[in-house]
Write a structure and sequence with these properties.
By secondary structure, the chain is of the alpha/beta class. The protein contains 10 helices and 15 strands. The strands form 2 sheets. Strands 1, 2, 3, 4, 5, 6, 7, 8 and 9 form a 9-stranded mixed β-sheet that branches. Strands 12-11-10-13-14-15 form a 6-stranded mixed β-sheet, with helices on both faces.
């Protein structure tokens, strides 16, 4: 029997200033990954002289540094660096990340187990508060995500190139990774985060979190949402003691449709659910206090606001009445799940019009080779 050949991996690190964090990132890659990778491509995006000098004084044999003559932004920098690689897979790292272990074998095993997996990330520090053990694992041990974050990711190089890489219209950065994720999902690919692979991510090293960052994020968020308006959908799902296994096929498909379009599900149940399907599905105790908190969510961000309420049997009467009043004031969609159909929640007030869930259109998408 022939032993499978391990895929070749190159590392891509786009850099813009932050010399101390950048050096720490590069050092950690060499220390932990050098035996598992071929080349480290550092794309310097017209950084200051201190950062350029630091990069030029690094003497790692695997390191290739390219100094761009002018600032191009995160997405274009990554695209240019990937174009220099001919590896099977590329590991793209923000320059403010730091690696403490060799997690490449875990990520590569996920690709081997799931040929429809396009991109996978190690879990960064903030995921510790998300209790990743509550999410069901897919083949290959990863947790599904429908909202791609580009702080650190391993991707099939040919696929990244074929789909067009990051869109340069997002300029300096922010939301170009989320946009790439939407395009991958539209072409039938999957994305994931591996709970057993961890990385430290400082965040905000290149642009900080000041006014220029806020303006950039606002501009790019508007561009992203103009392309994918359904990503604004945030469903408040309220039920009795149900789990994922208890839901009908029709409701499961409706939830999946929201998630695949970039929306989110906030599910209130009497007690914590043992499993959730993906990182865009959240679960909290069903209470008046929590419902009000979610109703007030996103006062300054329209894309975070609750856009519809779905009610399943077992929801407390007082909570049903509060939600019915909330959707009437906000003029939102409200659906009551009952006997396999969605009913308009206006029945909670005046017993009027019924709705049924729309069937999901399924398209067969032929994937190109990712080898």
């Amino acid at each position: 029997m022939n032993t499978p050949v391990a895929p070749s991996v190159d590392v891509i690190i786009p850099v813009y200033n932050a010399p101390e964090l950048t050096k720490r990132c590069i050092d950690s890659v060499v220390t932990n990954l050098s035996r598992s990778i071929r080349t480290i491509y550092v794309q310097d995006d017209a950084s200051d002289t201190e950062t350029c000098a630091m990069l030029d004084h690094l003497c790692y044999q695997q390191l290739h540094v390219y100094h761009a003559p002018e600032n191009q932004g995160f997405g274009k920098s990554v695209n240019d660096a990937v174009a220099r690689s001919d590896a099977d897979l590329v590991l793209v790292l923000n320059s403010d990340t730091e690696i403490h272990e060799n997690f490449l074998s875990l990520l590569c095993q996920a690709f081997e187990a799931d040929p429809e997996l396009a991109v996978i990330s190690p879990a960064h520090d903030n995921f510790s508060t998300s209790k990743l053990d509550r999410y069901q694992r897919q083949s290959g041990g990863y947790v599904a995500t429908y909202r791609f974050q580009g702080y650190a990711f391993l991707i099939r190089r040919t696929l990244f190139t074929t789909i067009g890489g990051f869109d340069a219209q997002f300029g300096r950065g922010y939301f170009e990774d989320t946009d790439l994720g939407r395009r991958l999902i539209r072409h039938g690919w999957r994305m994931g985060v591996h709970p057993d692979a961890c990385i430290h991510h400082a965040g905000g090293a290149s642009f900080g979190r000041g006014r220029s960052y806020r303006l950039l994020a606002k501009r790019n968020r508007a561009l992203y949402l103009s392309r994918y308006p359904e990503a604004r959908r945030n469903i408040l799902l309220v039920s009795g003691p149900y789990t994922l296994a208890d839901l009908s096929v029709q409701l499961t498909d409706s939830i999946e449709q929201v998630l695949r379009q970039g929306g989110g599900i906030h599910w209130l149940t009497p007690s914590p659910l043992p499993q959730l399907s993906c990182l865009q599905m959240r679960n909290n105790p069903a209470s008046i206090k929590m419902a009000i908190k979610l109703m007030l969510r996103g006062r300054s961000r329209a894309d975070r606001r609750i856009s519809a309420v779905w009610i399943l049997p077992g929801t407390p009467v007082l909570l049903r009445i509060l939600l019915a009043l909330f959707v009437r004031v906000r003029k939102l969609e409200m659906r009551k799940w009952e006997t396999g159909q969605f009913e308009s929640a206006e029945r909670l007030i005046d017993s009027q019009q019924n709705f049924s869930a729309k069937p999901i259109l399924k398209q067969e998408i032929t994937k190109g080779s990712s080898d």
